[in-house]
Design brief:
Elements lengths: L3 H8 L6 E4 L3 H9 L5 E5 L5 H15 L6 E5 L4 H13 L2 E5 L8 H4 L7 E4 L2 H5 L4 E4 L11 H7 L7 H6 L5 E4 L11 H4 L6 H21 L5
Parallel strand pairs: 1-2, 3-4, 3-6, 4-5, 6-7
């Protein structure tokens, strides 16, 4: 029952950095506004910046600069999708979003300036055509378990499979933040296939977080 603001005042006196995984974005914003130390968004309902930091790093590691590339987001317009859209504006790439009717991008929630860096598609195959990264997430995110049965029905035509990878760029990679549900949002053939970089992506969460902590504590990246 302690107010978030009070918890922030106390915890930030006992630490150098705070990472929070929570539900509503407003919780972490209230905490950060009352913290003496940097606060990292480990995940909220609306955003997942640490994961996208990792995903962009993984792309750079495998293929180089992401500027001008196209990311195809297939499925639920969740916290991952919202943060891909924010990254596209910052780093100048494009996101093709394909989701069922009723699950389209909400510009206000995504907190982006407009649609200059993304396009919405009703057909996931068209969203994937020519894309350099094909990525997705579970159909039912944390906190939405009560909607699982409805979501299984609504998203059944939005599975990433081999046919979808075939219409992407010939050097396209597949990404997923994990855990994945094979046979739902992605087939085993894709996630375990040669274009999948999910295990490098998973490892890179460690390295990206080390770099983020270094930057927040030192104010720079060590040479």
């Amino acid at each position: 029952g302690e107010p978030v603001e009070d918890a922030a005042q106390v915890i930030s006196r006992m630490s150098d950095v705070v990472m929070i995984r929570t539900f509503e974005q407003t919780i972490i914003e209230r905490f950060a506004a009352n913290s003496r130390v940097p606060v990292i968004n480990g995940l909220t309902n609306e955003f997942h910046p640490c994961q996208i930091l990792t995903d962009v790093f993984t792309w750079i590691e495998h293929r180089g600069c992401i500027q001008g590339k196209t990311v195809a987001w297939i499925g639920d317009t969740n916290n991952m999708c919202n943060t891909w859209l924010q990254a596209a504006e910052l780093l100048d790439f494009k996101v093709n979003v394909s989701s069922p009717k009723g699950y389209e991008v909400d510009l206000e929630i995504a907190n982006i300036s407009g649609n200059s860096h993304f396009e919405q598609f009703s057909d996931p195959m068209e969203a994937a055509r020519g894309a350099h990264i094909i990525t997705t997430d579970v159909w039912t995110s944390m906190g939405f378990e009560a909607e699982n049965e409805i979501r299984m029905r609504d998203f059944k035509d939005f599975q990433v499979d081999a046919d979808m990878m075939c219409v992407a760029d010939k050097d396209a990679v597949f990404m997923h933040c994990l855990p994945a549900h094979r046979g739902e949002e992605v087939t085993a053939e894709v996630i375990d296939g040669p274009q999948s970089v999910v295990w490098d992506e998973a490892e890179n969460r460690l390295h990206a977080q080390k770099a983020l902590l270094e930057f927040l504590l030192l104010g720079q990246l060590a040479s």
